[in-house]
Design a protein that fits this description.
Keywords: ATP-binding, Nucleotide-binding, Transport. This is Sodium ABC transporter ATP-binding protein. GO terms for molecular function: ATP binding. It holds the Pfam family ABC_tran. This protein is an alpha/beta fold and 288 residues long. Strand 6, helix 6 and strand 7 form a beta-alpha-beta unit. Helix 4 runs antiparallel to helix 5. The protein is elongated. The strands form 3 sheets. A 6-stranded mixed beta sheet has the order 5-6-7-3-8-9, with helices on both faces. Strands 11-12-10-13 form a 4-stranded antiparallel beta sheet. The two termini are 28 Å apart. The chain has 2 domains: 214 residues, Rossmann fold (3-Layer(aba) Sandwich), CATH 3.40.50; 50 residues. The chain has 11 helices and 13 strands.
Length: 288
C-alpha cells in the first residue's frame, strides 16, 4: 500500500467557505507537512480525514478502506495528536489508560509505560497540571501505545517553547526509523517542516495548491530577480507571482528550468523557502 490516505475530488461547503475538489495522497512511511494560512481549509480537511466531518462530495479512503464500511478498523490504526488537552482535566494518566486501553485491540501496557518514562510524564498528576508540551507528549504516548500506523497532528508545536519544539521534532524523527509509521503534520511554523518533512501539502483558500516532495519543491521552485525591462506577456508565463518595484522585479517560479531557458544569465535565481512560496501565493490560488 503506497498511499495511507487518499482523497479524491473531496468537497465540503459551509455558509461562507468551501474546501473544493481536493485530490490528496499521503504516502506510507513518510512525514507529510500540511501548510497554509489560517482559514485555508487545513482543519476541515483533517476533520474529514478523521471522519469528524462528512464531505459533500468525493471519496476518502484510509488504508485503502472507506469509513462507511470500516470505521472501527480505520480508527484502530490512527492516532490523533491535538494542540491542546483532549482529556478530562481532573483525570491523571493512570485513569486515562484505564479508560482508553479497552477501546483498542492492539493496546500495549508495556509500551505505554515505556513512553511515559521516556517522555518523563507523571502517572498520578491531573492532566490540568500539565504544561502544553506535557499534554502533547501524553497524546503522543497514547497514540503510540495502540501502535497507530497513521499519526495525524493538528498544529502540535503551536505555543510550545523552542526547546520543547526541537525535542518533539526529534521524537517524531526517531518514530520514523522503522518505516512502519506515517505522520501527517499540520503546522504554520514552517521552520519545523524544513527539519523533518519528506512531503509538503499546501492549501490556500480551500484549494490544494500542491502536494510534492521536499526534494521536488527545492528543485522546481525559486525566486527570480531582474530588471523590469525583461518582463512581457511571453516571459511572465514562467512565474506564479510577480512583485514589481522601481528597482526591478522579484518573482516566484515553479519551473526553474523554463526560467533558465527564457532568461539565461540576465536574472538572479535563488532558492525559495517554504515561507517565500506561501507568501507568494497569498491572496489567491495560482495553479501550477
Amino acid at each position: 500500500m503506497e498511499n495511507v490516505v487518499e482523497l479524491k475530488n473531496v468537497t465540503k461547503h459551509f455558509k461562507d467557505f468551501s474546501v473544493k475538489n481536493i485530490d490528496l495522497q499521503v504516502k506510507q512511511g513518510f512525514i507529510t507537512g500540511f501548510i497554509g494560512a489560517n482559514g485555508a481549509g487545513k482543519s476541515t480537511t483533517i476533520k474529514m480525514m478523521m471522519n469528524l466531518l462528512k464531505p459533500d462530495a468525493g471519496e476518502i479512503n484510509i488504508f485503502g478502506l472507506d469509513y462507511k464500511n470500516h470505521e472501527k478498523a480505520i480508527k484502530e490504526r490512527i492516532g490523533f495528536v491535538y494542540d491542546g488537552n483532549v482529556f478530562f482535566e481532573g483525570l491523571n494518566l493512570r485513569d486515562i489508560k484505564r479508560i482508553v486501553a479497552p477501546a483498542y485491540k492492539h493496546w500495549d501496557d508495556e509500551l505505554f509505560d515505556q513512553y511515559i518514562e521516556t517522555f518523563g510524564l507523571p502517572l498520578n498528576k491531573a492532566i490540568k497540571t500539565f504544561s502544553k508540551g506535557m499534554q502533547m507528549k501524553a497524546s503522543l504516548a497514547i497514540a503510540l501505545s495502540h501502535r497507530a500506523e497513521l499519526i495525524i497532528m493538528d498544529e502540535p508545536t503551536a505555543g510550545l517553547d523552542p526547546i520543547f519544539r526541537r525535542e518533539l521534532l526529534n521524537i517524531l524523527q526517531e518514530l520514523m526509523i522503522d518505516g512502519s509509521r506515517t505522520i501527517f503534520f499540520s503546522t504554520h511554523i514552517i521552520t519545523d517542516l524544513d527539519r523533518i518533512a519528506d512531503y509538503i501539502t499546501f492549501m490556500q483558500g480551500g484549494e490544494l495548491v500542491f502536494n510534492q516532495s521536499i526534494h521536488d519543491i527545492a528543485e522546481n521552485y525559486a525566486l527570480v530577480k531582474g530588471g523590469l525591462d525583461l518582463l512581457d506577456r511571453d516571459t511572465e508565463k514562467d512565474f506564479v507571482h510577480i512583485h514589481r518595484a522601481p528597482t526591478g522585479f522579484q518573482a516566484l517560479t515553479a519551473n526553474v528550468n523554463a526560467v533558465k531557458r527564457t532568461f539565461g544569465n540576465t536574472v538572479v535565481i535563488e532558492r525559495a523557502s517554504l515561507e517565500d512560496i506561501m507568501y507568494s501565493f497569498k491572496g489567491g490560488v495560482h495553479h501550477v
